[in-house]
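PROTEIN DESIGN WORKSHEET
SECTION A - STRUCTURE
LENGTH: 461
TOKENS:
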């Protein structure tokens, strides 16, 4: 693989050291792992007092182009499965926890054969978080910390800030997070975004939509908040925030458990939105086939429970929802995220507190779902896409996940809902990868998490 025309970002990289991601809250101490990038996740755990654990950053995902073909489990049956050693990485943080099945972590390393070209489309974004494509291939790009939204052309021309967005609570992992273009954009011009909403008594993730008025001075009008994560809590961490539209017109939104103990203990409590994936209609109403509707105490938007901080989400060719969540030290997870299931946090998991303290008695328990894959040490995931394009035939149906602390683009080869190969791409950029989306042209588009964040395009050379 060769990288052309890409100025390298000089940064200190500690691979395999702590990678977690927590965004370093403003009050925290020095972050050793994070290359100087304020953003989020990196973290140094343990610096923030009062946190139970660690923190992980905010992963995200965007699912880019939903809908196309093959599921992640598709694949050519006659292809031999990869074999050999895993991607080089540090020793596990929690060696006493054994995987539930072979291939749940540290699968054989694989290598992309197609030479890559990485082009910088634009730079100067302050901790950008998400990309969404307009029908004409221009991109909406969010900046987490400033709460700003821009429209960027394929040639890199950046619009003035889109005006009319509500204020955000930008502390820690908060701010303006994901953005999506509505499925009926051609007629409605509706765009959707997630952000940390300042509230009396704290904050909480919110989903808003509005009509984008394009032009030399772009703005949004008729802003409507369609979902609010409840309860309101004073925390700058673990808000989740990725959105995925499904072809049947529903919207998944990933949420976190706020990291502090008061929130963490609500991750499996259906009376709270914390630590959940939710599913709503685009106007914020509740789909009548959601899984907890028969429980009058449950929040009706809930799709799945027991998550820590889900920062990545994408649909496969069967329109099933895959998510990646930021775990504690040694516990980032890939989950096939199904209706009404409990993904175990904080009862089970493969990691430990950043202090080294034990969180879980066991990584497995009856009635709780096992991750399809986990990382120990962690990558600090954010951003995800399942590749369906034609530019890279060898990547078809592979998962791509941004690595913040790991400063890499992770590629997972999946067969029959199991991960069978892993690659860490673009290590030579020395950049925290916040977002990965497949463009309409089949290229991958990335954002790097830095105070001078870059928008990159990856194509075959
Ligand atoms: Ca789990």
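SECTION B - SEQUENCE
RESIDUE ASSIGNMENT:
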């Amino acid at each position: 693989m060769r990288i052309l025309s890409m100025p390298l970002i000089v940064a200190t990289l500690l691979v395999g050291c702590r990678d977690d991601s927590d965004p370093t809250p403003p009050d925290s101490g020095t972050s050793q792992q994070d290359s100087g990038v304020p953003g989020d996740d990196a973290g140094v755990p343990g610096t923030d007092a009062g946190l139970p654990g660690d923190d992980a950053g905010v992963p995200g995902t965007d699912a880019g182009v939903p809908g196309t073909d093959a599921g992640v489990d598709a694949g050519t049956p006659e292809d031999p499965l990869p074999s050999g050693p895993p991607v080089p990485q540090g020793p596990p943080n929690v060696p006493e926890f054994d995987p539930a099945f072979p291939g749940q972590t540290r699968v054989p390393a694989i290598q992309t054969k197609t030479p890559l070209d990485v082009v910088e489309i634009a730079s100067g974004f302050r901790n950008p978080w998400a990309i969404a494509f307009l029908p004409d291939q221009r991109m909406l790009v969010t900046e987490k910390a400033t709460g700003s939204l821009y429209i960027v052309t394929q040639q890199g021309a950046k619009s003035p800030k889109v005006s009319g967005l509500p204020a955000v609570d930008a502390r820690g992992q908060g701010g303006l997070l994901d953005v999506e273009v509505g499925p009926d954009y051609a007629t409605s011009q509706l765009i959707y975004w997630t952000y940390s909403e300042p509230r009396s008594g704290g904050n909480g993730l919110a989903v808003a939509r509005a009509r984008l008025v394009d032009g030399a001075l772009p703005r949004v009008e008729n802003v409507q908040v369609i979902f609010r994560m409840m309860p309101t809590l004073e925390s700058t961490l673990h808000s989740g925030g990725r959105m995925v539209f499904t072809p049947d017109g529903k919207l998944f939104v990933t949420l976190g458990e706020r990291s502090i103990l008061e929130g963490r203990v609500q991750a499996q409590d259906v009376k709270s939105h914390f630590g959940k994936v939710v599913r709503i209609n685009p106007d914020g109403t509740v789909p009548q086939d959601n899984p907890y509707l028969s429980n009058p105490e449950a929040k009706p938007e809930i799709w799945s429970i027991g998550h820590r901080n889900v920062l990545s989400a994408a649909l496969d060719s069967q329109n099933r929802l895959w998510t990646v969540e930021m775990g504690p030290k040694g516990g980032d997870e890939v989950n096939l995220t199904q209706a009404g299931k409990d993904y175990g946090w904080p009862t089970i998991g493969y990691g430990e507190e950043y202090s080294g303290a034990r969180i879980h008695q066991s990584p497995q328990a009856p009635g709780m779902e096992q991750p399809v894959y986990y990382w120990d040490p962690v990558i600090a995931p954010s951003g995800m896409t399942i590749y369906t394009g034609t530019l890279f035939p060898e990547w078809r149906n592979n998962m791509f996940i941004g690595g913040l602390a790991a400063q890499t683009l992770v590629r997972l080869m999946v067969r029959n809902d199991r991960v069978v190969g892993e690659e860490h791409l673009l290590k030579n950029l020395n950049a925290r990868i916040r977002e990965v989306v497949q463009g309409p042209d089949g290229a991958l588009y990335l954002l790097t998490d830095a105070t001078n964040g870059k928008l990159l395009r990856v194509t075959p050379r």
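SECTION C - NOTES
The chain has a mean pLDDT of 87.
The domain at 116-460 is CATH 2.120.10.30 (Neuraminidase).
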